[in-house]
């Protein structure tokens, strides 16, 4: 609410900022991944962390509305530290730490704190990170690009990778849409500190969910090597949708019950976080050679998160403002704003996750044939 009053930002404007931040973040991964294969990784790491800290500090002192989107895209982040800290703090220090800082401090102070911390981290890396000694590649730039394209063609022809990529494309949209969660909680009537605590609960849930997803994926894959991980993905999507839908559409706006809302958000975060650690990354490691795994992750991230950035923020903003009548900064219309924003977020989470469920279901058909093609399982595999 601070920035709605200070800059007049409505959700549709914030949606465009989210898109700029997300596109810069996802597309730059391909560049940094390629540079890391040919340059000193210590220098790249230190310089990128230092730049992240500098641009974060610039955001904290920016005065003009036109300046903020430019710095947001350069930083690979976006404006609202106090609105959506979990996804946007520099280098994702920690969702829990960022949420608590943003709930206690004004957004400018929160960005100053995190920017200074990021610069300090860069200096520590410069002083303590061991230097890397690598032989210089004799390949020309044209040769390196040609080799990269050949390897990508091999990866993109794998049917299971195609299913994972399509699932990631639609699966990233809901997580990007949830970047409006802080604004939604404040429209419900929670102050910044209580809203930040609820986001911290979500962050803890995602941490535990990633751990549970990895363990569960390995366990179920041991029982059913050809279908276990696909079952884990389907279960995670279906079970995660229910508590989130309740929080966005069924939570009683007239009565603030933080314990029930916290339980729903925690349950959602634990249940919906299994796909990446329990399904995506293990399948990549099985189907892609070690020399191509970095490229696979970089391109998957660039494509999937780019779609999430393009369709999530702007669509949520358009639906809640242009279709449902969200009124920025209207204190006497906060309940209506919460209903509008909650409905827009529900549309941009439930529908993509239904499509994502279908994409992961296709792995039941593609993965066994890919395993046989790679010689990883015999005819009797299950």
UniProtKB/TrEMBL annotation:
Protein name stated in the entry: GudP protein
InterPro entries: MFS, MFS_spinster-like, MFS_trans_sf
Annotated TM spans: 44-62, 110-129, 163-184, 196-216, 228-248, 260-276, 297-324, 344-363
Entry's Gene Ontology cellular component terms: membrane
Pfam families per UniProt: MFS_1
Location in the cell: Membrane
Family: Belongs to the major facilitator superfamily. Spinster (TC 2.A.1.49) family.
Gene: gudP
GO molecular function: transmembrane transporter activity
Membrane topology recorded in Swiss-Prot or TrEMBL: Multi-pass membrane protein
UniProt keyword list: Membrane, Transmembrane, Transmembrane helix, Transport
């Amino acid at each position: 609410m601070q920035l709605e009053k200070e800059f007049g930002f409505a959700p549709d404007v914030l949606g465009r900022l989210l898109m700029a931040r997300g596109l810069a973040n996802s597309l730059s991964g391909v560049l940094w991944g390629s540079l890391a294969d040919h340059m000193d990784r210590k220098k790249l790491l230190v310089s990128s962390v230092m730049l992240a800290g500098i641009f974060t500090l610039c955001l904290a002192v920016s005065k003009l509305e036109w300046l903020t989107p430019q710095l947001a895209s350069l930083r690979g982040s976006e404006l609202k530290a106090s609105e959506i800290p979990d996804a946007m703090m520099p280098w994702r220090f920690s969702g829990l730490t960022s949420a608590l800082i943003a709930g206690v401090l004004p957004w400018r102070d929160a960005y100053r704190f995190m920017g200074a911390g990021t610069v300090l981290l860069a200096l520590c890396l410069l002083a303590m990170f061991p230097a890397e000694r690598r032989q210089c590649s004799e390949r020309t730039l044209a040769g390196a690009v040609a080799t990269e394209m050949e390897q990508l063609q091999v990866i993109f022809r794998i049917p299971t990778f195609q299913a994972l990529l399509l699932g990631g494309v639609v699966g990233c949209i809901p997580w990007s849409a949830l970047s409006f969660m802080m604004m939604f909680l404040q429209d419900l009537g929670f102050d910044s500190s209580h809203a930040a605590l609820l986001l911290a609960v979500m962050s803890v849930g995602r941490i535990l969910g990633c751990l549970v997803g990895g363990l569960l994926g390995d366990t179920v894959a041991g029982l059913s090597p050809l279908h276990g991980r696909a079952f884990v993905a389907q279960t995670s999507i279906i079970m995660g949708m229910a508590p989130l839908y309740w929080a966005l559409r069924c939570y009683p706006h007239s009565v603030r019950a933080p314990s029930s809302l916290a339980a729903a958000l925690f349950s959602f975060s634990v249940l919906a976080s299994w796909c990446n650690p329990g399904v995506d990354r293990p399948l990549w490691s099985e189907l892609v050679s070690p020399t191509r795994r970095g490229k696979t992750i970089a391109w998957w991230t660039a494509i999937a998160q780019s779609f999430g950035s393009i369709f999530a923020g702007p669509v949520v903003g358009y639906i809640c403002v242009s279709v449902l009548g969200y009124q920025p900064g209207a204190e006497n219309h906060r309940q209506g704003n919460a209903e509008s924003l909650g409905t827009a977020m529900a549309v941009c989470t439930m529908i993509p996750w239904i499509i994502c469920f279908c994409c992961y279901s296709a792995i039941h058909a593609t993965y066994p044939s890919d395993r046989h093609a790679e010689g990883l399982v015999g005819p009797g595999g299950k």
